[in-house]
Specification:
Number of helices: 2
Shape: rod-shaped
Number of strands: 0
Order of helices and strands: HH
Strand content: under 5%
Helix content: over 70%
Low-confidence stretches: none
Mean pLDDT: 82
Largest sheet: none
Structural class: mainly alpha
Length: 83
């Protein structure tokens, strides 16, 4: 996990914790608070899902680049061994 990912994840978790604390300390009815918490949890889970999808895309790109590099090195080595 690189530094950027850690920062994004940290900010997301801190924002979710802050939002939950703010809702718990606000003077509201129980049912209203439950609805807000449920909505916040859904939003947070959607954000985490988006981050996971982004991570999968990044890993896929890195894997493809690695495969291409290995193939290129293999081709160059074959050229050296024929000479």
């Amino acid at each position: 996990m690189n530094t950027t990912t850690k920062v994004i994840l940290g900010i997301t978790v801190a924002a979710a914790a802050g939002a939950a604390l703010g809702m718990l300390l606000a003077p509201e009815k129980g049912k209203d608070l439950q609805r807000k918490l449920a909505g916040g949890a859904k939003d947070w889970l959607a954000e985490i899902g988006s981050l996971l999808d982004l991570g999968k895309d990044v890993i896929s790109k890195i894997q493809n680049q690695g495969e291409d590099a290995v193939e290129e090195i293999g081709t160059k080595l074959e050229g050296f061994s024929k000479n």
